[in-house]
Amino acid sequence: MSTTPRLTALDALHRSLGATMTDFAGWDMPLRYGSERDEHNAVRTRAGLFDLSHMGEITVTGPQAAELLDYALVGNISTIGVGRARYTMICQEDGGILDDLIVYRLDETEGASSRYMVVANASNAQIVLDALVARSGGFDAEVRDDRDAYALIAVQGPESPGILKQLTDADLDGLKYYAGLPGTVAGVPALIARTGYTGEDGFELFLKPEHAEGVWTALTEAGAGVGLIPCGLSCRDTLRLEAGMPLYGHELTTSLTPFDAGLGRVVKFEKPGDFVGRKALEAAAERAETAPPRKLVGLIAEGRRVPRAGMAVVAGGEVIGEITSGAPSPTLGEPIAMAYVDAAHATPGTEGVGVDIRGTHEPYKVVALPFYKRQK
User: Fold this and answer.
1) Which of 173, 195, 168 shows the shortest CA–CA distance to 184?
2) What is the mean pLDDT of residues 93-114?
3) Which of 4, 63, 110, 326 is the most buried (most CB within 10 A)?
4) Residues facing 20 on adjacent strands
């Protein structure tokens, strides 16, 4: 295995913009261009531009593509309409989460064959690909690794519809949240998806790698008048944390089921036939009803010290949970965290909860997620 990081089609452009680069899931990615806080605030109030080409695109086609995905994933994929997308998960036989995914149902192809694009997290793309291939036996469907076929650029924030409208004749007003339509952006073909990981309105543009630099430049020019700036992975993390969105490896792991993560709604027991993990997930659903496991909650600091993943959550001298993600919140102006805590301490407003930060129990208040919700 090569240890050289993979480069996106925009690598030279990031370096020309003075980006601080970092290794992320085997890719060399921009962490920040300037101030993380400025980048975060730009997305909340104006618009930010992201290179997300490290995400893993897997295409599933064939007469039984939907049946394969219904079996391989926990969601009811066969009910997704053409041009729509759905958040779902792929689980192990024991119910543990292998990854959380977005599945897009693309246009019908010749011979009544369906076409889906599964987008996996960069760190799990190979695992998801291998699992889908392993689970495809007996289905008239093909699983194809399309990671090299796409660059992915996101424009996120309240100004993003106005920016993108300058570069496309696609009907953005008619494009719902969690939908995608083929169109042209800056004169090149793209799948335009109204999805994102920031808590803001915005779009993710799947296009050929050779078109990435031209589209990035066109978006930069179209957004210059409204304060669009390039944004790195660092502010993407604080944006998703404020929006209460889980990150694989933090809030989601193989040791947790979707029910443990408070995301049991993505598991569709009513769909026909068996699916991988069904039996274990039925048991997990029952456990969650009768004896709730630790619950995922929000924590807001009463002081200034920032909690980090892995730190213990305490109450009355006992460990009652663990931080999964923590950071200073630019929007709230206070440190925030997500944590799994015992159900007895999970009610918003619960007093006496602290975080063990290097031996000191710093006071925190328990709040409902998300910390931030955009005004529609």
Assistant:
1) 168
2) 86
3) 326
4) 32
